[in-house]
Amino acid sequence: MQVVIVEDELVSSRRLERMLADLNCEVLASIVSVKSAIKWLQTHKHPEILFLDIQLSDGICFEIFDEVKVESAIIFTTAFSNYSLKAFEYKSISYLLKPINKEQLQKAILKTNTFLINNNEISDLKEHITNKQNNNYKDNFTVKVGNKIRIVDVKDISCFYSLDNASYLHAEGSNYIINYSLLSLNDVLNPNHFFQVSRKCIINKQKLESCHRIKVNRFKIEMENFNEFEIFVSRERIKAFKDWIEA
Question: Which of 79, 166, 182, 225 could form a disulfide with 173 if both were Cys (CB 3.0 to 4.6 A apart)?
């Protein structure tokens, strides 16, 4: 069975590729953005199954359907919790919650052999996810400062980062530990303002001071009042980063 993966997290994409190989599926391409997916689907024969991450670095995957009549069965992948998608359990839509396990993957593939997705279902799911995301964008984060609680507005946050198995936000020259992973932060931050440049860091466009090309495929980021470590854009995220900056 031939498949294509649209996923902007390299670790997740490679893990899915390995599991698909074990299930005798041939991965024709692994694509990292909405724009790249549209271009690929416009110029190639469509696979039997298309795996779509719902939230991509340059938008949500439903934009693909506005440009291309997709002829593949669709399996959506998402970090959204069960309750946010359970309304679609009775329909033919297949979706996998991250982190994906092999048993779930196998069931989803079998399901695509039975059902074909239709445009009404895509429209319903798009509306549901879009509304869910708009309602879930956080305006602030609560952090502990000694015995006190402080509320930090997202507009004051330069970046989020992971270090020594903990996650932090950096705002106005100070660092605060938070109870979020970088993966979960992607679901509650407005992608127009925040972008995950690497596995280690999410930046706020409004606090970006400069971006330097230091090699052909190497970009260094300078954030307002941030000196904890040097921030680089991962090679596989450079194109998506450029699209995000220019949007």
Answer: 225
| 85 token code pair | 């998608």
Residue holding tokens 């041939």? 26
Asked whether 2 and 26 are in contact (CB, 8 A), the reply is yes
The span from the CA of 210 to the CA of 212, in Å, is 7
Give the residue extent of every domain in the chain: 2-136, 140-246
Reduced to 3 states, what is the DSSP secondary structure of residue 166? strand
Q: In a 3-state reduction of DSSP, which class is residue 247?
A: coil
CATH number of 140-246: 2.40.50.40
Q: In terms of C-beta density within 10 A (0-12 exposed, 13-18 middle, 19 or more buried), how is residue 160 classed?
A: buried
Residues 6+ apart with CB under 8 A from 63: 34, 38
**Tens of pLDDT, residue by residue, the chain (247 residues):** 899 999 988 888 999 999 999 999 999 999 988 999 999 999 999 999 999 988 887 788 888 988 998 888 888 887 765 435 544 443 446 778 877 888 889 988 887 765 555 556 666 666 666 655 555 688 899 998 888 899 999 999 999 999 988 999 999 999 999 998 888 888 788 888 999 999 899 999 999 999 988 877 789 999 999 999 999 999 888 888 888 887 6
Q: What is 2-136's CATH number?
A: 3.40.50.2300
- Sign for the CA dihedral angle at 196, 201, 204, 205 comes to negative
Q: Does the model's pTM come out above 0.85?
A: no
Quick check: 100 and 16 in contact, CB under 8 A? Answer: yes
